[in-house]
Each structure stands twice: as structure tokens, then as C-alpha cells.
Amino acid sequence: MPTPPPTGPLVTRDTLAKQLRMLGVKTGETLLAHTSLSSLGWVNGGAVAVVESLLDALGPDGTLVVPTQTGDLSDPSVWRDPPVPEEWWADIRATMPSYDPRITPARGVGVIPETVRTWPGALRSAHPQTSFAAVGPRAAEIVDGHAPDCRLGERSPLARLEKLDARVLMLGTGYATCTGFHLAEYRIPSPRVPVGRPAPGGGWEVVTEVSITSDRFDELGYDFERDRPVVVRGTVGAAEARLFPVREAVAYAERWLAVHRPREEEI
User: Of 50, 75, 173, 264, which sits most exposed with the smallest number of CB within 10 A?
Assistant: First the structure.
């Protein structure tokens, strides 16, 4: 049976850049992008065209930032999708490659962040599980100094983005992907948990970290959008798009999580 032709819409680099500008993306700003390529329609040039359009809209003075997480560099005892046999755990820990920001691929965040990660001039932060990659004049300022025991807190690129008055672009993704909300988890009482991962240079290490979860982030985002007139909504390609300040989202999440999703602090 023949494969049916794509239904579109046909999307190009130029049309995406134009629509991003119409949405409100500004030349010279810093943008944290959460993206879904499949939501955009039939993109001529795929992920490369999307990244080009984002850089076109931002201009030479703008900086594009994306999450390049590597959640597979974790303890196999917590893997659920799929799990692995317990008798494999020790060997997996002993042989798992260490994180290398130059070559370790992003996982679970889509093809567009992986394209940014390998873009000429891209820089990537050092955290072995929750790194960010950036392209543009403020890239080093954002990604340098990502502490190995601070996934998404005060010593991560998220706090730098907040300080720089960056904005979040959600391109075909829901609020469950909004990494900025995690910064709020570091500012309210939250559990601490042991986190296992391959150590730099080989071997295995366990660090104590703030427990992070996107549970109820969709609900949090709905309330944020309802209560704060800072969320710009529009369409880019075939995707629903949202644009809003990191600072506003984090401040709202701090208050919301403390009331609607309190979590007992444990040391």
C-alpha cells in the first residue's frame, strides 16, 4: 500500500522566521526554546530549517538556548521506560560512558535541540544530566559554570536566563516541558534525593540533589496563562506557540507550587 502524501502545511525557513517575528520574537533577545518538529507541519529542510529560522528571527545579537538533557546517564535501577533486569545494573554502572558535552547526544528533547547542540559555535553546559546548549553572543555567559550538583537551580543556566530577562518560546509543546518551572522547585521546600550517574573520567558517583518532577506542570501552566497577561499566543507553521518571560513564569511557579503541590523537605 503506497504511503499517503503529507497533508502539510508546507513550511519553510522564511515563513517560520516571519511567523516568529509576528508572534513577538525580538531581534537581539535571549530565547529558551522548547520545540516539537512534528507539530510544525511539513518543514522543508527539517530541524536545520527550524534552527535557521530561529536564528534569523533573533538576529546576530540574539542568543538561542535549548535543553540538551541526557537522562539516560542515570542509575538503571530507576529506569521504567523500559526497565532493565536487575542483574544488569552493576555492569551498566561500571561501563556507562561519562558525559562529554562535545559528543554525548541529547535524549528525549527532540531533534531540534540536538541540531542546536551540533551547530557551529554552539556551547553546552557541563551538567551530565540536565545540560543546555546555546548559540549566540551570550552563550558562554549562560552555559558556563553549570554546577554538577545543581540540575536546574541557582547555579544552572536557568538562573542566568532569568537574570538576563530571557523569554521562553514553546513551539508545539505543552507546559509539561517548561524547564523554567523547575527553578521554582529549588526555591521552595523540596525533597533531596540521591542521584546516581557515571563520574567524570570513569566510574560511578552518587550526588544529593533537589528532587525535580514535572507533575502538574500542565495545570500550573494553565493557571499561569489565565492569571498573568504576559503569555503571547499564536501559530507558527501548524503549531500552537507561546512566548513569555522566564522571570514571570518562575515567580508564579514559586507561589503556585507551594500552595498546590507542596512537597515535604527531606535532607
Answer: 264
- Cα separation, 164 vs 257, in Å, equals 24
Give the separation between CA 187 and CA 8, rounded to whole angstroms. Answer: 43
**Which three cell numbers, joined as nine digits, stand for 163?**
537574570
Q: What single-letter amino acid sits at 17?
A: A
Pairing of strands 42-43, 10-11: parallel
The crossing angle, in degrees rounded to 10, of helices 246-260 and 217-227 is 120
Please write the tens of the pLDDT for every residue from 183-225: 999 999 999 999 999 999 889 999 999 999 999 999 999 999 9
Q: Where are the beta strands (DSSP E) in the chain?
A: 10-11, 30-35, 42-43, 63-67, 123-124, 132-135, 167-171, 192-198, 204-210, 232-236, 239-245
Range name among 33-42, 45-54, 79-88 with the lowest pLDDT average:
79-88
Nearest Cα to Cα of residue 31 among 168, 156, 228, 136:
168
CA distance 267 to 190: 9
Asked whether the bond before 82 is cis by omega within 30 degrees of 0, the reply is yes
Extended strands (E) in 181-227: 192-198, 204-210
